[in-house]
UniProtKB/TrEMBL annotation:
It catalyses: [protein]-L-isoaspartate + S-adenosyl-L-methionine = [protein]-L-isoaspartate alpha-methyl ester + S-adenosyl-L-homocysteine. InterPro entries: PCMT (IPR000682), SAM-dependent_MTases_sf (IPR029063). GO terms for cellular component: cytoplasm. The gene is pcm. This is Protein-L-isoaspartate O-methyltransferase. Keywords: Cytoplasm, Methyltransferase, S-adenosyl-L-methionine, Transferase. The active site is at residue 65. NCBIfam families: pimt, PRK00312.1. It comes from Thermococcus pacificus.
Amino acid sequence: MVDEEELLRRWEKTVEQLFREGVIKSEPVRRAFLKYPRYLFVEERYKKYAHVDEPLPIPAGQTISAPHMVAIMLELADLRPGLNVLEIGTGSGWNAALISELVKTDVYTVERLPELVEFARKNLERAGVKNVHVILGDGSKGFPPKAPYDRIIVTAGAPEVPRPLIQQLNPGGKLIIPVGSYHLWQDLYIIDKTETGKIKKRRWGGVAFVPLVGEYGWNE
Ligand code: SAM
């Protein structure tokens, strides 16, 4: 077993490397990464690998994303204190914890697998995160009770952009979502809703996420 001090030392090195490489671009994202190290959000046996810049297994056959991927999506989302954010695909709860540190207000995150809702809630509690609300449900339909959102961040790959997510976006809001094939490759899109309600779509590049399974996603 690797002790906590060593886990933290390894994690700080990873964060500094991502910062040097320009993957982490902003001080707030760097501070959030340092506040919530990835090893707090994986099972005991994976903690010693949490600093490695690759996805890791979490329960129910799902994954916690690689640190560089999480940093890229958070930077693209351009998060600021006070924004109303919805995350789809809670997984371990790590990304939601980082979002909550950046917006400093309540964050809503939807997960379809009960086992992971429980896993994420425990991780968040242990990490001392108080403003993340983990909701069990099909996030491909969004989460109407707290809409409209300034940002929606989807951390699973969709066959196409789910219509409800566009509808639940505020004018001036952004949706970050991987869209593409069921397994392996998707393209990451940044979808802006202008102040007049027009939709503008930009492609960032290739990514690899587990599938978004649901009414507006893939069939199980
Ligand atoms: N953001 C997560 C983290 O920080 O650990 C990693 C997310 S993992 C790559 C994708 C997650 O999306 C999985 O936990 C999966 O169960 C979930 N998922 C897939 N389809 C979903 C849906 N329709 N609604 C909510 N969650 C979904």
